[in-house]
């Protein structure tokens, strides 16, 4: 028995050893690698970048716009070939665009470090205009050697845009972001149309260095220095060098924008209260107007710098009794030498309106309306005179159902020149004789009023249908009225660029209409 027991135990040990050796020869199953891990710290759509503690979210949209009765996707027919209202005016303009957003966030001992990029890729047939010789061209996008869609271009014959590119850290925002002056809805209180007056814009971002302090209960204050050159310069106009009163093809009319180099950024302060019922915001901006020389060299001298400013109040009211999700957005603004904070960069040709229309005046060929709004004007040997503006903008949005909503929106801006500036333009008698406009109001002109003040009024409605989540179809109709204060007739020198002959034109208020149809898929 003892021998038998020893044989059994020996055999068992041998079998265990053999089975262990065989197990060692088998491949070991590796632990699954988690390539994509959901990051729940910052809301839906975020994932950890593999191998890091940084979360990333990719999002964007694809949008197609078709606009009726405009030569530009943004502003409507208020200048150029669009404002000519003739055979060079587009019946439609078309744009296809893809937007891409990249949002990264990392938790640190100083708080969240965030980077954000919003870029767009667009193909647009804006400014599709006749040349007066039987040919047509697309808008000049691309490079100098390949300026047209048909000839190539910078990005697959389209354009690349960078809207936002900023870093946020410990209360600081550094880079290209929406101006702290602007209301949260920028130029869109209840519309898709880009060209509303009545408040700050920069919906595509402006370079800035901002610190935002949070005080709790929805109260915050932002202090910001932001670049003024890209979007917030309306012009420091040298009336001693007349060139162009908003009409393509003319060379000796109103004045030339005479900027020196950059010297000071715009300084912005913003106070905001965010609550469940909506928000209230107060904004202030200081804007330096830094002019170059009266003539071509340093020896001609220059005017002193002139600081302008702008103030704005904005109010949003949510949860109103008319229905769930209904909203009212309102804002009002005043500017003095800082026009772009009212007539923003996409609005009504950014304050350079020239619109042609019909006339009943005997002897007049057509009518024409002007509205020009720089920051300042000056003459040789004189100082800058600031332009003052008022503006309001607002909308009411009503949700008929989860799939349908309609908004009614409006905007208004008033532009005022002081008496000194009017004298520069219209002469001592106020009839256009002896002022810089005498270069434009040629022999045969008969002015009963020479007054560059004007108003812009806009009214519109938009309806949106969202049949499935993140897919929206919308129709947006906008009416724009130019209420200008010139009166009488003017001998206009003509403009071959837009097909207008040299003739007598009546000075008259003008109207224009735009319809925007949009399909957009967000992802």
From TrEMBL:
Its annotated function is as follows: Forms passive diffusion pores that allow small molecular weight hydrophilic materials across the outer membrane.
Membrane-related topology note: Multi-pass membrane protein
Q: Which UniProt keywords apply?
A: Cell outer membrane, Ion transport, Membrane, Porin, Signal, Transmembrane, Transmembrane beta strand, Transport
Q: Name one GO cellular component term.
A: cell outer membrane
Compartment(s) of residence: Cell outer membrane
The beginning of the lineage is: Bacteria, Pseudomonadati, Pseudomonadota, Alphaproteobacteria, Hyphomicrobiales
Note what the entry says on domains: Consists of 16-stranded beta-barrel sheets, with large surface-exposed loops, that form a transmembrane pore at the center of each barrel. The pore is partially ocluded by a peptide loop that folds into the pore lumen.
Q: Which GO terms describe its biological process?
A: monoatomic ion transport
Please give one Gene Ontology molecular function term for this protein. Answer: porin activity
Query: From which organism does this entry originate?
Result: Bradyrhizobium macuxiense
User: Protein name, please?
Assistant: Porin
Q: Which domain of life is it from?
A: Bacteria
Provide the family line. Answer: Belongs to the alphaproteobacteria porin family.
Annotated signal sequence is: 1-23
* Subcellular location, principal: membrane
Is Signal among the key words of this record? Answer: yes
